[in-house]
Every structure is written in C-alpha cells, then in structure tokens.
Description:
By secondary structure, the protein is an alpha+beta fold. The chain has 13 helices and 38 strands. It holds the Pfam family Transglut_C.
Amino acid sequence: IAATQPSTNWHLKENAREHHTSKFSSEELIVRRGQSFTITFNGTERPEQNLIFIAETGPKPSKATKTLATFDISSTASKEGWSAVLQSSSSNSVSISISSPHNAVIGRYRLSVQSGSSSPASLGTFVLLFNPWSSGDDVFMPNKAECEEYVLEEFGIIFAGNKNHISSFGWNFGQFQGDVLNICLSIMDRSLYYRQDPVTDVSHRHDPKYLGRVLSAMVNANDDQGVVLGNWSGKYEGGKNPSSWTGSGEILQSWKKSGFKPVKYGQCWVFAAVLTTVLRCLGIPTRTITNFSSAHDADGNLRVDEFYDADGNHLERGADSVWNFHVWNESWFTRNDLGPSYSGWQVLDATPQEQSGGIYQCGPASRHAIKEGEVDLDYDSTFVFAEVNADCMYWNYDAATGKKTLIFSKSTEIGDSISTKAVGRDDRVDVTSDYKYKEGSREERDVFKKARKKLGLEDKFDPTAPKLEEIEQKPDISGKFKVAGSLEVGKDLNLLLVLENLQSDAKTVNVNMTAWSTLYTRRRVNQIWKDSISVTLAPKEEKQFPIKIKYPEYQQQLTTDKTIQVTALCHVEDGIQVLVKRNITLDNPGIDIQVLGEAKVNKEVVVEVAFTNPIDEEVKDCVLQVEGCDLLHGILELRIPPLKASEKSSTKFKLIPSEAGLKHLLVNFSCDKFANIKTFKMVKVIN
C-alpha cells in the first residue's frame, strides 16, 4: 500500500437507504448487522491483490471476544463471520461490499486495510446497530409496519391518569436527532458493567437481553450516575418537574452537557420514554406500556397491604404500594436462554423500584412467562408478575394498640387496562390479555396459585396465609363514590357517596370521609377536606349523599399530578367496617393548535395556539413550549402575557419543516394556576 492514507467513500446515502438508517443525521456510516454495505477507497496499487480488512471495537479487541475480525476478499458473503466481496476496481480505487455476522457486537468500529506485508492503513470508523429487518438477528421483527413504529418512529403516546379515566400525552423520542446516537454509545461505556470489566462488557453487546438489562440500570441515576434522577416527593426544587418534559432529546443532551451528571427529575414515564429512545436508536424494537393500578410488591409475597386509620386516612405503613399507573417498556427479541415460546415481547423497567442483582435494574422478563405464572424465570419475573397480578389487602390500623383488622381483600384490583400506542395510528391498544388471563377466570386463579407455589408461599408456615383475624366477614352494606359532573382543574368537584343496605334489617352507619391530594403513586401530600355523617339505612335501602369540594378548597393543595384520593370509612353499628375509596384524576383545561396553511418542506408555515382562561381570576407566568422532530430544531419557548378571567390568548409562531411525511407537533402550556397542559397535533408535510 502506498504510504498515503487511503481516502474512503462510505456511500452514506445509498448504504443508509439499504440499512434503514437514513433518519440519522451523521457524517459517519451507520449500518445494521447481518447485512452488506459498500465502500470505495483509493490509495492502493493492484488493489484487489492480498487485501486484508480489520474491523475492531472496544478497548482491547480480540478474536476470542468477537471484538476483532480480520477477513480477506472472498467470492461470496459469509453466513458466519465478517466478509468482503470485490464489487469493482480500477487502477487506483477499489469498491468492496462488506458483511457482518447476524450476531456481531454492536457499537463503533474502526476499519482498516492491509496489503501484503505493509502495516494496516485506517479507512475510518462506522457504527454497527441491531437489525430487526434481518431474519437471522435476535431482534428480527417479521412485520414491517411494526419495525417502522417500534424502531423508526420518533413520536409516541404515553397513557396516564387512572383506570376509570385514562388520559394520554405525546412524547418526542427523537432517537435520530443530533448527537443522540453518540450519547447512547456513551451510556453503554459508563455502565457499572463496563467500568468493572470493559472487555467482557463489550463482548456481550451482541445480545439484546444483556444490553436491555444494562440500559435499564443506566437510564436511572441510582448506583451508576445514570441519566435521570427519580423524585416522587412532590417537591422538585433544583430541577424540572417530571411532568414538564415533552421529549427525551433535552434530557439526553443535558446529561451529556453537564459532564454526565444525572438530570433532575424523572418519574416512571420519563425513565420508560428515555429507555425507548436509547433502545430504538440502537435498533431494538421497543415501546412504552402503561399498567393501571400497578402494584409495587416490596416483599415478594404477591400481596399488597394498604392501611387506613379510623378516620379513613390512608396511612404510609409498609413498603408495598399501588400506583394509579406505572409505565415500563417492552422490547422485542428472542430468549435463547429460556426457549422459543418465551421469545417476543420482553418487559424492561428503568424506574428504580427494587434492586435486582444488587442494583436498580429490571428485566428482561418474558411477557409470556408473566402470563403463565413462570415467576422463576430470568429476569425479575416475580416483581413484574406482582405489578399486574398481586392481591390487595385493606387493613384498619389502630396506632394506639398496634392492632390491625382486615377490612376486605380484592384479587381483581391490580393490573387494569394495560395500554400502548397502536402501530401507525395515534390510538390506544389494550394488551391486558397478553399479560394475564381474564380476571376472575379459572385460568387466572390457577396461574396465580402456580406462581405462589413456585415462590414457596403455599406451605403451612406461610406468613401470608390468612390468620384468624384475616378471615373476611360479609359486610352489611356496600358503598361507592360516583362522579357527578366534570373532573376539571378550575371547577368544583362534585361526587356522590352511594350507600346500600344489603340486609333486611335497618342499619346505622357512621361515616368518616377524607379527601387528600396525592401523587400518581397515591402518596398523600395535602389534606383537602374531611367530614363525617351518621346515617340510618332502612332494610335494602340505597341512599346518595352529595359531596362538593370547591375549587378554592383544593386549588392550593393540588399536586401537578392533579390526583385526589377520596375515602369513606363506614363504621356499621354491630357490624364490620366498610371502606369506600376512589382515586380521581382531574383534567387540565384544553388548548387548541391550528396550522394556518399548508406545511411544505423548507417553507415557513404559521401555527396558532389558543388557550382560554377558564377560572374567574387572572393567570400569570404563562409559558408555551413547542417541540417536534423534523418540524423545528430543539425546543421553542414563548412567554405569554397574563390572562384575565375568561380571557382567550392566541399565540402565533413559525415552523420550517425539514422533511416530508406525517409529523407531530408537541405543545406544553404552563402558568401559575395550571401546570403542563399538553397536547399534540399531527402535521402533514408535503414536498
């Protein structure tokens, strides 16, 4: 080889088109494994003779760890290892098609070429990713529309609220934007696994099971100075309220810019959304999943205990909890460690809830294993099984005597309306039946018993088996809260407590009622209201008691999660207590987006955002945040003047779309009285 450095043409456009990597905006070649790519280089004499290529990755490349490959020119691409096939050559340049194996380690590679006995000359670097379009890859996804959604789509919808009232908001995953790929590669190189043993860590990066688990640990800041710091206190000084983010890009960029200090703050959907970005970026098909009435079973007995005092206040006792909703991830890959029936969607959870193997990581747990109660299979199946299946026990706790009395238990409370975004549409799809058999069905109870048995919870020394005080008695009355009217921040909250006497003799009932503002995890923050009533119910009589909580009563107390827990503890004379509870999520007022005119590539288009102040006092500190892939760079922030009672504001701004297709614009409006009013609008961009 001549002493000059060869100059390489990486055929960026053509290779990217073939490898589904055109959305990356990079000057570096980005390709997927198990598929050939073409490069042309010059600076070689008699080029096709005795050329040897060297591809290497990681700190100490070696053939033993499959981080180093040397290969010469062959007549056909190899099925097993790396290979090079001559495409064409002229007197001073040569065109080569290079193929990597289906199970190659992913990451940044250095490529060099050697001719005869001279020393190797560098051709440059390229990045190798997982390949869901290739049937030999562990992440192969046969359905092309699903590949488009779960790898290439940069917009997502995350479901929240509670099971009686599901809401949703848009999220900008932005996995192809700016520096995100480089940040994802940095995340892998900052994990505890890499720090302890870089050579072994890099050699495992061919395996989506391994990377999914490592990245579930790295997206939270616990243990390893990972990307996002969790905060469930309701106080977010020194950082951003978790509800205020609208995309992963800002979070990942902040992490890098700060010198890799954890970004403040996240809650479950932030961890799940960032993990979606990272895994989609690396080529592992991934989606977010929302589980309503999600159990956090801290002690692994598949049971969640909740305690209430005599006034009906929910007590913070014990480590178990039930969240209004919890968001985790599913990623698609094979489970050659468990067998073919366990392949497909795997649960990963980056929210730091319980340690696994000594650090805060969770998964991959096979979704099929969860449905079948195979809680002994790797990884963390017991925890995920409990999230969707735990039984609930509700107790009355007397602090003075330390006595606890079972009020009632429920086996159909947990794991409701498990939701994800539809493929190619902005709709909700219910996937509950992929996690469990129908609630209350024989199969569902059989699976639950099987899981308990596998965990050794069925023997006679079982501390969780019903003791005498746990045997449930039949209540004399039943009760429920009904919502009367709208559930909107700024309006009074109108409820009905409905009590029914189930017996054929009259009953006197003393009812203690409370309402607390909570976080979405149902953690109590402020008491809003309390009241008590005494009622007599004639035989079989049903009575309704209206409850009104006025806006000024709850306005100061409400958290940005906009959630309120209402409880009524009913003490029946000469009978057992009945607990009536309801978790309520209030909606923000609406906000309206209009695109004025046609959206065309590289042409200005005006967007108008309108908001009407629904309350009879002024709102101030109004800020509008806008983001959207291929519609604008970064985040646009606009300050809006204060709005008097019932006043309407209209804000206009300009976009210059950079790419044709269906794009999503995300808008987040906040002021002193309303936090994070979010909406999104699909924008059709034409050439």
